[in-house]
Structure formats: structure tokens, C-alpha cells
Amino acid sequence: MQKQELSYKDTKFTVDTYWIDPLVDYEEQVDRPVVIICPGGGFKFHSDREAQPIALKFNSIGIHALVLRYQLVDDDHSVYPLSLQEMATTLNWLKTQSEHHIDLKKVILIGFSAGSQIVADFNSIMLDPEQREKIFNDELEVEPAVNVMGYPVVDMTLGWPKEDSWAMKISPDIYYWQAQEHLTKNGKPTFIWQTVTDEVVPVMNSIIYAQKMDMLKIPYEMHLFGSGSHGLSLATYVTQKPGVEKNLNDYDSKWWDLCVNWLKLQKILPKH
């Protein structure tokens, strides 16, 4: 892993890069898909359980991976719109990385919990030219092909965060609070998964985004598992906090295989 420092205007941010090296015994190199990962953490921190383990999992199926260390709440900045501008900057930066053999038509955005709201808002706001031009002056040269959202925050009026004061710190502009309200037909196909017993982010967040996608006839696949806690990540021993049994859930861990199948349906991965 190498850290790459990028900037939007006068604000610097970091991207962790997990490139798959070219294979020297190939006569012709393969252009591989790339995923940009937005870990959760309630906009207070970036959860490592949803960073490197997810990146390496994507590497294992032949996909380059980046972890976007997006803007958190601090004394100088709110999360929005800067996190969306950072994502757009990262996407455009991919175009300069030809030595890594990236298939720019197969870019995946994946978010977990709070990180999923950045993905959802990007899909809603930043892929619509009229909305995007209000906050991002440059051309968006690289667009994602698909999105993946795990136990996502979509609408900050549905139960997370519990305090409006924290929501105001995330964004004093309520325009960014409800991603589903700004979704247009420009949105990309999306895979969503969550547990119906999620004790932190109400499952209605997933349902309302899927419902809006359905209304707009944007392809999606949603899996709501019957039990399981918030913040499962891979739901295996790989991402289990020591001694925390609720991080293990063999049933819910199937989300990964379901997601890989869906990426094949979307022609991000070959079927065989």
C-alpha cells in the first residue's frame, strides 16, 4: 500500500492505493477495474475494518483498490460538499495513472455506513450536470460505472444521526442530508445490502434509495438480511474486533459473493 496525497483547491487529502502490479509474463497487460472505497466511522474517523480488508478482497478478484480518506467533521470543515469534491478529484486523477493499466469504464464506488452516504450523494448530485456544476467547476472526466453500499446512511432524518446538532456539523446545508431526493436518471446501477436488525442505521435508508432507483428505472440489487448488527464489514474473522462476537455472521458474510455475482452481471468482471 502507498499513500497518495491529492488536493482540491487548497485542501489536501489522502488516498491509500492498492495497485495490482503488471504481470511480467503477460505479453500484453490487462486493463483492470478499480474500486474507490469510502469507509464508515460516523464522519468522526475512517474505520480501518472497512478499508484495507475490503481493498485486499477486491485485489483478490483482480480489481485495483483505493481507499479515499475523505473529509471528516473538524473545526474548519463540514463533510459536504468537500467530500464530494474530493471524490470527483480522485476520479479525474485516475486518468493520469495509465501505468497501472486501469479500465476507466469499470470504476466502482463502494461505501459503508456514513461512507455510503458519500457514494449515494455522489450518485445523486455529482452525476447530474446541473447539480454538479454548482459545487465542482471542473469537468468530471471519469465517472463511476456502478456503486456498492453497505448498511448505508442515505437520509439523515431517518434516525442517524440521533442529534440534529451532529447532522448540522456534517452539513449545515440540509440539501446534502437526503441523497434520494436528488437522484436522477443519471444515477448508476447500485448494489445495496444491510440487515433489518441494524441497531445504528435504520434499514429504511436502504429501502428508500432502492425505491427511488426503482421509480427512475435505474438497475439495482438489494439484499436485506434477517439478522445481524451494524458495521459487519466482511462479517468474518478477518474484520472481527477481538472478542466481539457480533462482528461474525456467516449468513450475512454472503453479501460478498452476491456482490461479486452482481459485478459479473454488470460486466465489471468476466462471467467465468
Automatic annotation (TrEMBL):
Single GO molecular function: hydrolase activity
Keywords: Hydrolase
BD-FAE-like domain: residues covered: 27-212
One Pfam family it belongs to: BD-FAE
Listed name of the protein: Alpha/beta hydrolase
Entry-linked Gene3D superfamilies: alpha/beta hydrolase (3.40.50.1820)
Lineage: Bacteria, Bacillati, Bacillota, Bacilli, Lactobacillales
